[in-house]
């Protein structure tokens, strides 16, 4: 994982994973250096990742007061239980459905849970975090938030993009990556992650995007995109999601063809 500091208030714990045939997907967690420090998601659930070790280079895990779980997919929960053990004061911010989904694998201790719904807010000492449901999401428990002090928008999977190379996925600012195909890559990810968007009326979807856009966030901090201050561009790009080409994944014939490429020659 790479660590980027956006400003005095936000650290990005950046990782990535390759999606064969598509590119490289950024996997970001964040630390909000509030009076009551907030960790946003906890990285990939892979055995070679050490989320707690990476976090320890940013702040003492024992100081963490809140773990904002944008949703309980496995690329967001890798270090969750280790962090709960290392941060005895911390509570997990999630929804009723989020708790239920987690309970199918490893239940959260309910005295460590803080339920927060879209539209509600949380005071973390020197700022307020206002929860919202992003325009694009892949889980019914997804909840992003707006930071009242920095104006940053923590958008979970929304605005993500599968980048062409590992280097592109790892840049500390989206402006440092090639710009020519960002829109296409965002729309590809929208179809992969939120396939329901192709069944949505484009005007109703535009209303959802406009509601968030009206807040005029200073940064878009997506789980699956390098951090970006080009917020207008990102909003414009996702407006095309309902009418974009639906994603169709590889079928068995394609899988067999891929596997054949790796078979040793006779």
UniProtKB/TrEMBL annotation:
<dbReference type="InterPro" id="IPR001279">
    <property type="entry name" value="Metallo-B-lactamas"/>
</dbReference>
<feature type="domain" description="Metallo-beta-lactamase">
    <location>
        <begin position="26"/>
        <end position="224"/>
    </location>
</feature>
<dbReference type="InterPro" id="IPR036866">
    <property type="entry name" value="RibonucZ/Hydroxyglut_hydro"/>
</dbReference>
<protein>
    <submittedName>
        <fullName>MBL fold metallo-hydrolase</fullName>
    </submittedName>
</protein>
<dbReference type="Pfam" id="PF00753">
    <property type="entry name" value="Lactamase_B"/>
</dbReference>
């Amino acid at each position: 994982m790479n660590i980027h500091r956006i400003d005095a208030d936000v650290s990005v714990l950046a990782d990535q994973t390759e999606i064969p045939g598509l590119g490289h997907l950024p996997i970001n967690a964040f630390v909000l250096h509030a009076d009551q420090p907030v960790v946003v998601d906890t990285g990939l659930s892979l055995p070679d990742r050490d989320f707690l070790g990476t976090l320890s280079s940013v702040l003492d895990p024992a100081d963490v007061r809140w773990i904002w779980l944008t949703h309980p997919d496995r690329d967001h929960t890798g270090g969750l239980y280790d962090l709960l053990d290392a941060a005895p004061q911390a509570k997990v911010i999630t929804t009723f459905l989020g708790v239920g989904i987690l309970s199918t694998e490893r239940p959260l201790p309910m005295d460590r849970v803080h339920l927060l719904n879209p539209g509600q807010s949380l005071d973390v000492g020197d700022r307020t975090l206002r929860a919202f449901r992003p325009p694009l999401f892949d889980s019914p428990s997804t909840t992003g938030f707006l930071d009242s002090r920095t104006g940053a928008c923590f958008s979970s999977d929304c605005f993500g993009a599968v980048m062409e190379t590992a280097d592109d996925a790892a840049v500390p600012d989206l402006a440092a990556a090639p710009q020519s195909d960002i829109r296409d890559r965002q729309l590809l990810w929208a179809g992969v992650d939120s396939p329901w968007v192709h069944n949505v009326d484009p005007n109703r979807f535009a209303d959802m995007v406009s509601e968030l856009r009206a807040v005029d966030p200073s940064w878009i901090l997506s789980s699956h995109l390098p951090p970006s201050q080009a917020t207008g561009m990102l909003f414009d790009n996702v407006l095309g999601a309902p009418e974009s080409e639906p994603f169709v994944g590889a079928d068995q014939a394609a899988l067999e063809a891929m596997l054949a490429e790796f078979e040793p020659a006779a």
